[in-house]
Amino acid sequence: MVNTTAAVVQMNSRDDVAANLAAAERLLVQAAGAGAMLAVLPENFAFMGAHEKDKLAQAEEAGRGTIQKFLARCAQQLKLWIVGGTIPLKAPDGRVFAASLVFNSSGECVARYDKIHLFDVAVGEETYRESASIAPGAVRAVVVDTPLGRLGLSVCYDLRFPELFRALSQQGAEILCVPSAFTARTGAAHWDILLRTRAVENLCQVLAPNQCGEHPGGRHTHGHSMIVDAWGSVLAQRADGEGVVLAEIQRAPREHLRKTFPVLDHRRL
Questions:
Q1: Could you give the CA distance from residue 49 to residue 65 in angstroms, rounded to a whole number?
Q2: Contact 88, 53 (CB under 8 A)
Q3: 201 classed as catalytic
Q4: What ranges in the chain are assigned the alpha helix state H?
Q5: Digit-coded pLDDT (tens) for 60-109
Q6: Can 156 be counted among the known catalytic residues?
Q7: Active site includes 115?
Q8: Which of 159, 182, 220, 266 is deepest in the core (most CB within 10 A)?
């Protein structure tokens, strides 16, 4: 019987890389022990500083560095596919890319997506300016074959741009991956509805790990990491606190839905 279990990992990352990696490893071990074949870490899982520019000091060269070695080792030792939320990889202009890396169960990096849409917004009295430290990635849709199906990559604020997810769908995505650090305020208003909408309009399952709780600098994130099926139903969710969310990612029900409710074939634009 083929294992089809996926895990999303909810964390409360802080400004200590070693402590964050230790927490991530503990949760990945838990996911693998529960039978997960693929696990997704949240955005900024290895570091969340008090200020956006704090991440520049943690930047790594592509293919080298403590965080990337950690992901490769955990994937190989646990025999687990891992989506490494985002990590800061050096950009040519002195900023970093918010890079989401996919490692197979042999510890090889098989895909990379750099966050396209940057969170430069004011939310009430809170102001965010990701572009001060993050360079936008090349505008492209990244889909990678995994044991659970074709996985389409995105990050956090990308969730508000449906054209990216349509492009992923057109490239054959069957599962959508949305590692995030969604704020408490925007998450309470929009997290659930946006995730379920992206699932429904693309007939894809969605894997959405989020940061939770309070972080350095007083930032609060929403938690509520979840796995959504292609009909928009929440299969599993964790509201608060660090932990692992598990669900089966079944191909047959998704393919049956796509045949009997062929919205993807009815597009005219």
A1: 19
A2: no
A3: no
A4: 17-33, 66-78, 162-170, 184-186, 192-202, 251-260
A5: 999 999 999 999 999 999 999 999 999 999 999 999 999 999 999 999 99
A6: yes
A7: yes
A8: 182
